[in-house]
Amino acid sequence: MFPYLRSHRVNLQLLQEKSCRDLVQLLESIEGTKLIVLDDSMIGPLGLIAKPKIFAERGIKLLSLKPEQHFPKESQNIIYIIRPQPSLMDHLANHVKANTQAGRLFHIFFVPRRSCMCIKKLENKEVIGAFGCIEELAWNFLPLDSDLVSMETASGYRDVCVDGDTTSLYQAAIGLVQLQRLYGRIPKIYGKGVQAQLVWDHAKHLAIDEKALYNGDKGAIDQLILLDRGIDLLTPLATQLTYEGLIDEFFGIRQNQLTLPAEHFPSYFASGGDCTRDAAGNGVDSERSLLGDTDRKTIMLHSGEQLYAELRNKNFNEVRMLLALKVKDIQLQMNVNRQGQSVQEIKSFVDRLPQLMEQKKATSEHTAIASLIDEHLNVHSFNDDLAAEQEFMICADIDRASAYIEDQIACRAELRNVLRLICLQCAAGSGLKERVLNYYKRELAQVYGVEVLLRISNLEKAGLLRTQTESRAYAVLRKTLHLTVDDIVEVNPHDISYVHSFYAPLTARLVEHSLKPLGWQTLKSQINNLPGPTFEDFQVQLIGIGGRPVVGATPSEASLMHARRVVLVMFVGGCTFAEIAALRFLAAQEDNNVEFLIATTKVINKHTFLDSLLSL
Amino acid sequence: YHFYNAIDSEGVESNLSLIGSSYAKGRCTVEAELCTDTLRLLKLQRTLTAKRSDEVSLNGLSVHDTMMELLRRGDLKEVERMKSDYKVPDRRYWWMRILIMAERLNWLELEKF
């Protein structure tokens, strides 16, 4: 149904189909005409799971959840598909009171699980009787791309670190078990960080009852690497320089969708296309049918589209070049002098035409996006910020208050950006000197008002701002793991550091090293001074009673050694597109002989990450 | 020291001393100091506003914004006093001066630097 999810080893389509089946089953268990009401945060995820066709076929209408709503008379069943947030229950209660009529039933499907708090709240409002069935849809991981699944919980890291709410960890653990159910047991597990450890402990606990998980053969996934966001706070704050990363930072990608003002795409209007672009975006999804926006254009971004798949992970400087090449290429093909050609040649050209037009459209679209990004890049402040960032990355002057930050504060620059730079300095120095930290606090409070202290305390709880301890993890690792490289190669790179121009994300570097023979063992001593425990675990096949003992390396398993390994890398607390790009780059290297599946709580960037932490 | 946050968000002046003392209990000297500073600032702002009722109210502005506003009025003496009172670093002080001069197109004076 979603062709872009298909890949040769771990087929994420299975996951999507299963999720979709769950939904359909639930829907069919309810009789009568139906109307689905979606909470805003569910619209995108639903589009990742089910096509609108499913609903159209069954005559189901979709609405988005609003505080005041009146439902048409003819629908007998109102179904809510929502996240378990108690605040939403108030709306529901109001709806029920305003819309009760004979023969009407309300239902709730909680995603990913029901919460007692929500149900209790409905009881308190005395509307619980109106609800027919309250079910849960266990959509823990949503497939975003052929190698990427996400929980789409934006506040995952914040919940755990600032609010002490570990629901998202638990959900991740359930998701892991679910993945193992679909794809088989994962024999080897490596991990680093407190949260990662918690997730794994939960997952192990949950899987204990499922003997089937252990008895079966080794599954499609060979290895799991659990990484905690807490071990690397520098990467999510740094500016990403890949094409996809930049798009996300400037415009925001939500569930593979990019929405931009349509005025930037004149050709698109001219061709009269409204929303049926099946080649590039097969997700004409509920959002559009729900809230028909005509002056916004939604673009689907995933590897199903050839050109984007090629461009997304490249450094932006390379993207410019590639786009120019593409344009030239298309022009060349279109303008071949056709006079001297035989009929056959012309025929083959005509056959190719639709494909060419398709290419042309995709190219023009991405040129438009690229030029928009260019505009943002050419602003002075962007380059100044980047320069300051890169100074920190190479550990220049991190013990003093940075003059650049001082100037930014004095000019009353955007608070978020100022805090980001301070956090970056802190991450690079593995903590700030107490004097410097206090100086910054004073400056911030004086310029932005005392309220800023609350936000700072959030950051302190999350570990983004802290005073220095003896160990200088980043400075040491920068040397031992070559996090920054001296020769900058952005075009046709041979090292993952290209995603941030010269800095290689620590997480991706860890994964890279763990792939080497005995890699994890050597790593263990090196990453000792990062926060959180380092752990490893093995899930071996259980020997059944009276069964033959399983010989460790049977010939078939030995031959498997030469096949491509599949490694599931799970980021607890979110990961950036730059990290994803780095991992994809590693997978593309021949000698690694490996394939990655990436799981994350949410794809984050410097803005969304900080925003989730800063909100009070 | 998490529970002070709840109080702080109300942001009422009367609460500030309370918050300050809780910060002090939680051994956050900087935060405590800043709270007392704010308290002082609010008092100062009130007297300043009372002195000249005709102009924009200063109440509730941050130290930086108050100084900017005063500079806009040309009250250099008061600004200098605030600078030493609130330990405003020289760098930021001159930034303020320059920004305000630029705002008023006071190029002649800018050249003197």
Q: What keywords describe this structure?
A:
heterodimer; A: 616 residues; alpha/beta; Rossmann fold; Syntaxin Binding Protein 1, Chain A, domain 2; 4 domains; 7-stranded mixed beta sheet; 5-stranded parallel beta sheet; 26 helices; 17 strands; 13% strand; B: 113 residues; mainly alpha; disordered N terminus
Distance between the termini of chain A: 41 Å
Quaternary status of these chains?
heterodimer
The count of helical stretches of chain B stands at: 7
Beta content of chain B comes to: under 5%
Mean pLDDT of chain A: 72
Explain this structure to me?
The complex is a heterodimer of chains A (616) and B (113). Chain A has 616 residues and is α/β, with parallel strands linked by helices. Chain A has 26 helices and 17 strands. Chain A folds into four domains: 12-139, 3-Layer(aba) Sandwich (Rossmann fold); 145-237 and 489-543 and 559-614, Rossmann fold (3-Layer(aba) Sandwich); 243-266 and 293-356, Sec1/Munc18 (SM) protein, domain 3a (Syntaxin Binding Protein 1, Chain A, domain 2, Alpha-Beta Complex); 381-429 and 432-467, Serine Threonine Protein Phosphatase 5, Tetratricopeptide repeat (Alpha Horseshoe). Chain A is 47% helix and 13% strand. In chain A, the strands form four sheets. In chain A, strands 6-7-16-14-9-8-13 form a seven-stranded mixed β-sheet, with helices on both faces. Chain A is globular and about 70 Å long. The relative contact order of chain A is 0.13. Mean pLDDT of chain A is 72; it is low at 267-294 and 542-561. By secondary structure, chain B is an all-alpha fold. Helix content of chain B is 74%, strand content 0%. Chain B has seven helices and no strands. In chain B, helix 1 (3-10) runs antiparallel to helix 2 (13-25), helix 2 (13-25) runs antiparallel to helix 3 and helix 4 (63-73) packs antiparallel against helix 5. Classes of the chains: A alpha/beta (616), B mainly alpha (113). Chain A: Belongs to the STXBP/unc-18/SEC1 family.
